[in-house]
Amino acid sequence: MRRNYPARIHLKCEVCETEFTRQPSLVKKVKRSFCSKNCADIAQTTAPRFNFKCEVCKKVFRDTKDHGADRRFCSRDCFSANAPDFSEKECPECGNLFTPIRSVHTTDGVSKHCSKKCYSDSQKNGEERPCLNCGKNFYTNPSHDNTCCSLKCKAEYYSGSTSHKWKGGKFLSEATGHKFVALERPDRVGKYVAEHRMVAMKHIGRLLEQWEKVIHLNNLPDDNRPENLYICGTNSQMRKLFNGTLPWPKKSNLKEYK
């Protein structure tokens, strides 16, 4: 099967005015039209010339533009004289001798430090201080004013009474009416425990297990007197007490409970 190619475009040479054809894809890439390299060279030599002033010797010279930009130097010697100095020098941060490389971040065009570490150290304007939580020294910027070395240490230090949201470590639950107090336990995620459970734990001398429930004998959730508390050994016992399957206790069992 014969393949259909796009029709070639007819053009006219800008120098000798000879007509020639070219592929459409090349017409989009090349802005000017020349039939041969000889005509392209002739057009280059006849390009308009302008007066420029050399940045080194201050001499005025006449030449074509450099890819549309003004020329800066009149000769190769002036260009080389303006080149950056890449001779060996001393690092201002660590004092080691090194050969600099080209850099766009300096005024003279060459690097000032021997490594990225020395450059980073030169930009530091903060100080080292001990972490309030772990005591480890860390660097901090004065604009940040950090007091802890990491987010983890910050969360651990600013918890409980050091937190800006601390309200005395006590609150009243609107749902149940029970009082809660702050108590951090190693095997528990929550940092608060019901006050009536705290009273019961103090009397029996140990922490209560999750299945050991404490009820109020007079059904008043804010009456946390020891004589008004009763410990249920299991969840099943507590449910039977509330649904009437077992008789409701009349006396606290904190003294004899183990």
Question: Describe it for me?
Answer:
By secondary structure, the protein is α+β, with helices and mostly antiparallel strands. The chain starts with 8 loop residues before the first strand and ends in a 15-residue tail after the last helix. The protein is elongated and about 120 Å long. The chain has helices spanning 24-29, 37-45, 76-81, 116-122, 151-157, 195-204, 235-243; strands at residues 9-12, 19-22, 50-53, 60-63, 89-90, 97-98, 127-130, 137-140, 170-172, 179-182, 192-194, 213-216, 229-232. It contains seven helices and 13 strands. The mean pLDDT is 86. The protein has a three-stranded antiparallel beta sheet with strand order 9-10-11. It has a two-stranded antiparallel sheet with strand order 1-2. It has five domains: 9-45, no CATH class; 50-81, no CATH class; 96-125, no CATH class; 127-158, no CATH class; 170-243, no CATH class.
